[in-house]
Amino acid sequence: GGVGKTTIARVIYNNLSSEFECMSFLENIRGVFNTRGLPHLQNQLLGDILGGEGIQNINCVSHGAIMIKSILSSKRVFIVLDDVD
């Protein structure tokens, strides 16, 4: 830890994100997962991808996975997941 991996990932994300239809940079996956759970991460991802429009609050992980798959399958997306176990 502490060698700047997140900073490097953020710079690359900022430089490349304009080439994609949708993008999301999810930081501290491990910490958010442990404190708020997977549905929160799914909501965050969908909010980023859809710009916060048309999002329902996901409470069920399997429902969130189906929604993410159906939305992402038709778009060119760039997703960075930081601090994943």
From TrEMBL:
Q: Which GO terms describe its biological process?
A: defense response
Q: Which residues cross the membrane?
A: none
What GO annotations for molecular function exist for this entry?
ADP binding
Q: Please state every residue range assigned to the domain named NB-ARC.
A: 1-84
Output the superkingdom of the source species: Eukaryota
Identify the PANTHER family for this entry.
DISEASE RESISTANCE PROTEIN (TIR-NBS CLASS)-RELATED (PTHR11017:SF570), LEUCINE-RICH REPEAT-CONTAINING PROTEIN (PTHR11017)
Give the protein's recorded name: Resistance protein candidate
Species this protein is from: Vitis amurensis
